[in-house]
Backbone:
């Protein structure tokens, strides 16, 4: 309130009014600011209020807040009451509302965070390569696919539930949901893998590796939702360092067991840290509050779980699309194709670039919202920004692919050949589709990307005989459909409400 | 009973009042409808047995979806356009149209998804079009796309109560005007339930005063506050009875279209058992104050006034009971700095929060309240019940509370405040006489039993479908002696108020 007592008393005014010989009295008297003589002076005093008033009643409220009563204004200004005076002031002072102070930008993120995320997503690939010796024998394909897909689906759902709770501003609840979800997720992965091992005979170490993979995914999800990237990095460090050293040494057979033991520390650490983070400070026993007539609040309701379903589905489908090329290239049960695995590495790394571009898009559309007053202009420019974001993501992913290929070639892991280009192209189209899907999800559109990706996966499986050609065709079509939909949906300003 | 952001999730004056009413009338079964922000807020009050159910309506968080298959499946374009027009239009005719639109929106919300409709791109488009048509002036304040989105979003959140099933009750009592009247209106439209709207501060006035802090541009504020103004006015028109907690509130209510014959002032009350008569006084002349340490209480004026008192009566003390709200401690620091600057730090005691507020009244020869805005402050009527005379500022219901049993001065005037304090501190006889009168006045007009008795009467009349008898004790204090001081400009001689208060000459 500009007209409040405190701000109406600048110290300089007090100095002018005071009597220098009696300092105490000076300070005391400073509140007796002279009362405006006429309405004109009053308007000046109340200018900030009058200029931004939305209705005469707002000025009346401010006058009363300043201590003016009906009798006082009648006596001093000869108007019938405060309301009449306010109307007069509203008429006299033209509207010149002050712009609100700029709001803190909710999309202000550290430049390093998306890069760190990309690293965190990509780094585990090295562990796969190091564990290739492990991943041989019967049931490898089935176990790996089931472990990956189940943990992906469950961790996506878990992340959704965690973020929803965080968004409600109850971090304690969020931690409790994450802890409970972590336990449930582990059970889920275990059950899924047990079912597989009933159907196909499974080599024990493969089973354990799959379980480790699932644990890591869930633990990492919890840590990422809580913003504990550094802890996740700490959990990853032994596995990555061990795997890299092992690979650089040329995978000596004598060190295989040591390497696997080192790899095992990563999921164990991720799980341990996730549990520690979620139980820290969380009051696990709730105070029950008596609330007659209403159900006690549950940790997770059926409605919450239903809402998390599209996320779980998307995890499953996206995982399927990413794994499919690796899986089809595994003839029989011969083992994991390191080359195909490394081809998916840039895609994992590019998710960091995707996060960065999502933020870029948000910040630019928010700025546009504040600048434009025509819906048509907004829609057009937003669509252009969508294309720009997509192209920037694509460029970043191409760069990452080139870098990874160069490093892998240099260290002798792969011998690149022009025949790999179609595979890379398919991955590019897939990466762009994932990017647009994530963008849509950020704008509360979860069903359409899920349905489109599911249809694409079904097509890839149906036309698996077409190999890479099928993947290129399907992923390009998917990208086109998703981009078209995004352009349609995001052109509406209402979607950009935050 | 319907509350908004208060009982039973928050502490504060309105919550105390709700609790008193419900506990005081165990013969009625109460259903609580609480408008809350997200629904994650914990219940902090122990609910009495007579509360049969509590329904929480969350204004934020996941929006209500409405029934899956409704008759209204399309976008209610005409309805949303009329809503926008009735909010933007400030003429008298728009008020009635707003009422009709609300009722139609309620019908729609009961069958379709109103939240989705209001948050949709089509609604945003309608608002931008309406703005384009009638935007009055320069490009500077021209609404942006962001403004349209924000404005529609705010109204969508506000109107969420329309999507909930109406309560079934004999009477709906809304604790404050504002969004809480929406559930009441739905009950009236569906079941014909009579509505009582109580009011402590004036809801709309508080929204206006708060609006400079809103982070929105002017077009959004105009739309949002225009919506709230229409809603408050609608509540005054639709309510069977309006029960402000002071006569002063009537001015705003009548201004917004309330029928004066439906207004029944029901003063807040205290339980005399909790505030016994204090026969003894502190040994040195002491001014005490109790409350939340907040700029609205204008402690600066009190401290400056005490500076004058202290010069005249060096042995005088000022004791302040209360603490600042969390996160807003800076005001306390400012006040302490002012006390140091005035050289009165030694004589001022910051007592902090006290669990027994009556100790604060016991501590003073005189109880002071220097606020710039009040509804009907408990601290005055509590002090009066304890047998203490008060010096208060002429804001809200203070004058009505104190009447002729204390001194009321214009707000923000340390010299006048100090004069009043000195008058009372110096004249033992006058102070004791006024203290006795204060207790008598409080016991006569401001007891909890009195407040509950009036509500009991209103409830039973309305529940029986009868109109209330013509108010016997309304306007301007026929049975409630009120001494309203006037603003005294410095260029005029002593004011010429009529009235026969013995302390007239001294003020």
Residues:
């Amino acid at each position: 309130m500009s007209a409040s007592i405190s701000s109406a008393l600048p110290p300089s005014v007090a100095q002018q009014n005071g009597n220098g010989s009696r300092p105490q009295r000076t300070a005391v008297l400073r509140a007796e600011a002279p009362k405006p003589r006429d309405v004109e002076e009053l308007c000046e005093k109340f200018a900030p209020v009058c200029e931004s008033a939305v209705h005469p009643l707002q000025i009346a409220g401010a006058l009363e807040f300043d201590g003016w009563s009906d009798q006082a204004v009648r006596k001093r200004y000869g108007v019938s009451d405060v309301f009449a005076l306010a109307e007069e002031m509203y008429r006299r002072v033209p509207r010149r509302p002050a712009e609100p102070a700029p709001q803190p930008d909710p999309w202000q993120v550290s430049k390093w965070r998306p890069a760190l995320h990309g690293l965190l997503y990509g780094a585990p690939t090295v562990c796969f390569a190091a564990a290739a010796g492990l991943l041989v024998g019967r049931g490898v394909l089935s176990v790996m696919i089931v472990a990956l897909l189940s943990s992906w689906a469950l961790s996506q759902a878990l992340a959704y539930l965690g973020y929803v709770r965080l968004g409600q501003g109850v971090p304690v609840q969020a931690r409790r949901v994450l802890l409970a979800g972590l336990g449930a997720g582990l059970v889920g992965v275990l059950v899924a893998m047990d079912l597989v091992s009933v159907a196909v005979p499974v080599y024990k170490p493969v089973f354990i590796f799959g379980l480790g993979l699932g644990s890591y995914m869930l633990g990492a999800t919890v840590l990422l939702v809580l913003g504990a990237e550094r802890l996740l990095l700490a959990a990853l460090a032994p596995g990555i360092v061990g795997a890299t050293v092992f690979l650089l040494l040329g995978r000596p057979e004598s060190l295989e067991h040591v390497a696997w033991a080192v790899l095992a520390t990563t999921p164990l650490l991720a799980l341990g840290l996730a549990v520690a983070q979620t139980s820290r400070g969380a009051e696990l026993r709730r105070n029950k509050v008596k609330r007659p007539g209403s159900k006690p609040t549950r940790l997770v309701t059926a409605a919450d779980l239903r809402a998390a379903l599209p996320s779980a589905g998307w995890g499953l489908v996206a995982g399927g699309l990413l794994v499919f090329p690796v899986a089809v290239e595994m003839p029989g049960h011969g083992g994991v194709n390191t080359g195909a695995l490394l081809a998916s590495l840039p895609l994992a790394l590019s998710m960091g670039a995707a996060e960065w571009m999502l933020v870029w898009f948000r910040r630019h559309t928010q700025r546009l919202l504040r600048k434009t007053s025509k819906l048509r202009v907004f829609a057009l420019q937003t669509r252009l920004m969508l294309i720009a974001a997509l192209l920037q993501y694509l460029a970043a992913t191409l760069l990452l692919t080139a870098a990874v290929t160069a490093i892998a070639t240099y260290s002798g892991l792969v011998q690149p050949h022009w025949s790999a280009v179609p595979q890379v192209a398919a991955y590019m189209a897939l990466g762009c589709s994932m990017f647009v899907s994530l963008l849509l999800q950020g704008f509360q559109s979860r069903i359409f990307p899920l349905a489109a990706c599911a249809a694409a996966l079904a097509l890839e499986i149906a036309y698996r005989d077409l190999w890479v050609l099928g993947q290129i065709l399907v992923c390009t079509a998917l990208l086109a459909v998703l981009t078209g939909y995004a352009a349609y949906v995001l052109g509406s300003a209402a979607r950009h409400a935050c | 009973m319907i509350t908004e952001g208060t009982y039973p999730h928050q502490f504060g004056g309105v919550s105390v009042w709700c609790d008193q009413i419900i506990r005081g009338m165990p013969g009625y079964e109460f259903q609580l409808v609480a408008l809350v922000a997200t629904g994650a807020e914990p219940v902090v009050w122990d609910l009495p047995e007579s509360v049969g159910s509590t329904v929480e309506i969350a204004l934020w968080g996941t929006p209500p979806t409405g029934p899956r298959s409704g008759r209204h499946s399309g976008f209610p374009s005409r309805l949303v356009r009329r809503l926008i027009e009735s909010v933007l239009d400030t003429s008298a005719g728009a008020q009635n149209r707003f009422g009709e639109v609300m009722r139609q929106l309620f019908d729609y919300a009961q069958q379709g998804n109103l939240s989705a409709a209001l948050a949709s791109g089509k609604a945003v488009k309608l608002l931008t079009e309406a703005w384009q048509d009638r935007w009055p002036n320069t490009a500077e304040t021209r609404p942006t796309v962001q403004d349209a989105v924000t404005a529609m979003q705010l109204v969508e959140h506000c109107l969420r109560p329309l999507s909930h099933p109406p309560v079934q009750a004999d009477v709906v009592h809304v604790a404050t005007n504002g969004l809480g009247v929406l559930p009441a209106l739905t009950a009236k439209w569906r079941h014909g339930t009579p509505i009582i709207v109580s009011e402590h501060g004036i809801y709309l006035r508080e929204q206006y005063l708060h609006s400079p802090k809103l982070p929105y541009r002017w077009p959004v504020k105009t739309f949002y506050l225009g919506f709230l103004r229409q809603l408050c006015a609608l509540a005054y028109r639709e309510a069977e009875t309006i029960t402000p907690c002071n006569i002063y509130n009537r001015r705003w209510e009548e201004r917004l279209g309330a029928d004066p014959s439906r207004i029944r002032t029901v003063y807040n009350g205290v339980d005399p058992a909790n505030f016994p008569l204090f026969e003894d006084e502190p040994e040195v002349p002491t001014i005490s104050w109790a409350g939340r340490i907040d700029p609205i209480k204008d402690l600066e004026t009190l401290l400056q006034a005490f500076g004058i008192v202290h010069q005249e009566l060096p042995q005088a003390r000022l004791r302040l009971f209360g603490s600042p709200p969390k996160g807003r401690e800076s005001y306390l620091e400012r006040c302490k700095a002012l006390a140091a600057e005035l050289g009165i730090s030694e004589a001022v005691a910051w007592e902090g929060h006290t669990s027994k507020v009556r100790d604060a009244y016991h501590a003073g020869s005189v109880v002071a309240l220097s606020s710039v805005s009040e509804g009907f402050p408990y601290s005055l009527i509590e002090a009066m019940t304890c047998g203490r005379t008060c010096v208060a500022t002429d804001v809200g219901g203070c004058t009505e509370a104190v009447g002729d049993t204390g001194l009321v001065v214009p707000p923000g005037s340390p010299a006048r405040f100090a004069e009043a304090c000195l008058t009372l501190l110096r004249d033992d006889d006058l102070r004791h006489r006024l203290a006795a009168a204060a207790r008598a006045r409080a016991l006569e007009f401001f007891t909890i039993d009195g407040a509950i008795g009036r509500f009991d009467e209103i409830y039973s009349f309305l529940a029986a479908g009868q109109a209330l008898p013509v108010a016997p004790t309304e306007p301007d204090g026929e049975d409630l002696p009120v001494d309203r001081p006037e603003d005294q400009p410095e260029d005029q001689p002593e004011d010429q108020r009529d009235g026969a208060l013995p302390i007239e000459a001294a003020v």
